[in-house]
Amino acid sequence: MSAPQESSPAVRQLRLVVEAEDYEAAVAFYRDVLGLPEQAAFSGGDGARVAILDAGRATLEIANPAQKKMIDEVEVGRQVAPKFRVAFEVDDARETTGRLVAAGAEEVAPPTVTPWESLNARLDAPGGLHITVFQELSTLEERASHDGFGTEAGRPGD
């Protein structure tokens, strides 16, 4: 498959939609405790409600099963993540983890320094989400010099 042209991106936004049984608690957790600003909110008939929270820049991380297993081992020490995990980059992983636990999240693993030079914590959070909060400890450029870190386009055989 060839790489896309360097023109306007076809996708303008990644939006993850989460059904939360306790809507009020989930909105309060992600908006008020984690700090995702409310971009918009809508309501409809029969009590239908949605809040759209701004999570900054979005990426879609695609990992093969071996990578998913390795990440769980590094961050938690055992297999815990379901097929989907949501990760939030924060300025201070330790402080954020403490705030989220105080607000009702269950800590699965405390902040741990990873081989890819970030400080990652795992939590089970409202809305049934298994999440990572992470703090980058070095720049992308610094990490790019390490073995195994780069882009798919830069791998041998391309």
Task: Give the overall shape.
Answer: globular
SS summary, helix count? 4
Please give the number of β-strands: 6
- Classify the helix fraction into a percent range: 10-25%
Class from helix and strand fractions: alpha+beta
Average pLDDT reading:
89
Largest sheet: 4 strands, mixed
List SSEs in N-to-C order: HEEHEHEEEH
Task: List the defining traits of the structure above.
alpha+beta; four-stranded mixed sheet; about 160 residues
Could you explain the architecture of this structure?
The protein has 158 residues and is of the alpha+beta class. It is 23% helix and 25% strand. Strands 3-6-5-4 form a 4-stranded mixed β-sheet, covered by helices on one side. It has a two-stranded antiparallel sheet with strand order 1-2. The chain is globular, with a radius of gyration of 18 Å. The chain starts with 22 loop residues before the first helix and ends in a 15-residue tail after the last helix. The model has no long low-confidence stretch (mean pLDDT 89).
